[in-house]
Every structure is written in structure tokens, then in C-alpha cells.
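Onboarding guide, step 5: your first structure request.
Type a short instruction followed by the sequence, for example:

Predict the 3D structure of this protein.
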Amino acid sequence: MALEKAEAVVQELSLKGINSVAMAADISKEEDVKRMVDAIVANWGRIDIACNNAGINMNSASEDTTLEEWDKTFNVNLRGLFLCCQAAGRVMLSQGYGKIINTASMASLIVPHPQKQLAYNTSKAGVVKLTQTLGTEWIDRGVRVNCISPGIVDTPLIHSEALKPLVTRWLADIPAGRLAQVTDLQAAVVYLASEASDYMTGHNLVVDGGQSLW
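The system replies with C-alpha cells like these:
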């Protein structure tokens, strides 16, 4: 299914004259990440921008969170992100230039209402610290690492039966009075990927409609 969706995007981009390639990978596996990065370099010779936005959330009460659930969440949200940053970062460091954009979460910035996402919140807090660490370590070699913490984004994922009861509560918590749309994040990603953000590194850019200000 994931590969089919990627291939659909490739088809859409090809109609616009943009060359792209579809790949499916399990980012928690080092060999999959290496295969993905090697394919990019083989096709384009370099990596200038990497946007790491894979993530999962299991939504269990803290006392019921199993070690399996904890590990699965961290394997994708933090281990996988680390592997992708490291693999792309090695290429960028050899080039002397690159932009890495990670996806954290507004939930890592505030004390949340009871939302049953201990593993998710903790993993996303780790993304912020990983970003800060890489951002300071790599900037003098031309690589900037930043992250975005979006608020609750209106995607099919939040319309699951498990999350529907929380949507009303989330809306009450957001000063903007609505959930974020994917388009609300696009300009932030473009900014962090462009030369306009060359003097920014290790920063967590919050786009949450004011939710973390409470």
C-alpha cells in the first residue's frame, strides 16, 4: 500500500516534468535506510534536502503500555529518524552542504491532557533533542538540522475510531479554533529547506495554532 501511494505521487510529479523515484522502506531497519539513501545518490549524485516525517502513535494508557508498544513507537519515531539523519547526514557532510528537517510534535512541548500517548510524547521529545544536538554538531560543516512541531493536523489518521473522542477536546485547546491543514505546514518546510534558513540550526519551529501557549 505504501509503495502504491508513492508510485501515485511519482506519476503526479512526472506529469509536471519532475523526475522522481518511489521506494518502500522500513526506517527502523538500518539496511533499508542504507538502500534508500544509496538509491537516491545513485539517481541524483547527492542529497541536499532530507525531510524525516515518518511516525506512529499507539494511544495506550501509560499503565497499560507494553514494552512491545514502547519499542515499536521508538523504533520508528526515534531510532528510524536517527538512522535517516545519520545516513543522509554522511552524504551531506561529504558535500559540505545539506538541510535536514525532522518532524517532532507540539505534544513534546506542553503537559498534555490525558491523551494516552506516553511513548509517542517521549519519542517526539527525543526528536527535539536529537535535532538540537545534530544542529550544533554539523553546522560548521555546512549541514543544518532543524525540526517542525506541528499541532494536530487534519489527516485521515486522526479520524480513527480511537481518536474521534479527542477531536472535540483538541479543538477546545487550540486558540485558532481549528485543526491544522497540511497546507499550513508547507511554507515552514520550504523555509527550512531553502537558503533563507541558512542561519538557523537546531531549532524547533512550532506551527500549532497557539495550542502550546496555554
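Each response can be followed by summary notes, for example: The longest helix spans residues 67-95.
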